[in-house]
Specification:
The protein is α+β, with helices and mostly antiparallel strands. The protein is built from one helix and 16 strands. Helix content is 18%, strand content 40%. This is Fibronectin type III domain-containing protein.
């Protein structure tokens, strides 16, 4: 019985000692976390938060408004900032899943970035992401035209500040199978007579897609598409 009481006493002492160490560990951890938080706040550092995926999803016909889709994360507010070619912030919107900015101008290249914020109109909780780009080029500025009585077409692209060149892709299908043809310098006009080294065929529709490449090495996320249909002219 004496040995049992002695064993129980040792067990209780050991258990109490473990509790002391456990509580001490928790307190120390909390103190460390608090010190780190205060140090970061004192230095004005921004916490690192995971930025959701985001992309441009809509540009209005008058090019004054753009909307952006954001991968929804519960409780996470994301700020989409739109910058001009001089990296000046021109518009922004805070949203959970869909952001919209207004006041844009035609025939411009814009860059957009994302950062997480504490809430709508809140303070940043991350740095800005790397830049993506889009353009507000008026489609009327891009000239697709078939050459009369020839199996050929011409394409003329506009000069726009910030645009390095346009990459031309072609396909015989509307939404797939596009192959790179060539790069076109701003303000230039080219003539096309072949696709995949074969002359254009009568009665065939060819789809043309233009990708805008910026001088900063960022490809615009939107593109411009048209089509040319070659037909035989009947003479009587």
């Amino acid at each position: 019985m004496k040995n049992l009481r002695k064993s129980l006493g040792l067990f209780a002492a050991a258990f109490a000692l473990c509790m002391v160490f456990a509580l001490g560990a928790k307190v120390n951890a909390a103190d460390v976390e608090m010190q780190i938080g205060n140090a970061d706040a004192g230095k004005g550092q921004v916490q690192t938060m995971a930025i959701p995926d985001f992309a441009i999803s809509y540009i209005s016909s008058d090019k004054s408004q753009a909307s952006f889709s954001i991968a929804y994360q519960y409780g996470t507010w994301t700020r989409i900032g739109v910058f001009d070619e001089n990296d000046r912030l021109v518009a922004y919107d805070d949203a959970l899943s869909y952001a919209t900015v207004t006041g844009l101008q035609k025939n411009k290249v814009y860059y957009y970035r994302a950062q997480t914020v504490s809430g709508e109109y809140g303070t940043p909780t991350s740095q800005w992401s790397d830049a993506k780009a889009f353009s507000t080029i008026d489609s009327k500025k891009i000239k697709f035209k078939g050459v009369k009585n020839q199996k050929a077409c011409t394409i003329k692209v506009p000069k726009v500040n910030g645009v390095k060149n346009y990459t031309l892709y072609m396909s015989t299908k509307y939404d797939k199978g596009f192959k790179k043809v060539k790069n076109i310098k701003p303000g230039k006009k080219i003539k096309l007579t072949k696709f995949k080294k074969k002359s254009f065929k009568i009665g065939k529709r060819y789809y043309i897609r233009l990708q805008v490449n910026t001088k900063k090495g960022v490809t615009c996320g939107n593109y411009y598409q048209g089509s040319v249909y070659f037909y035989r002219t009947l003479k009587f």
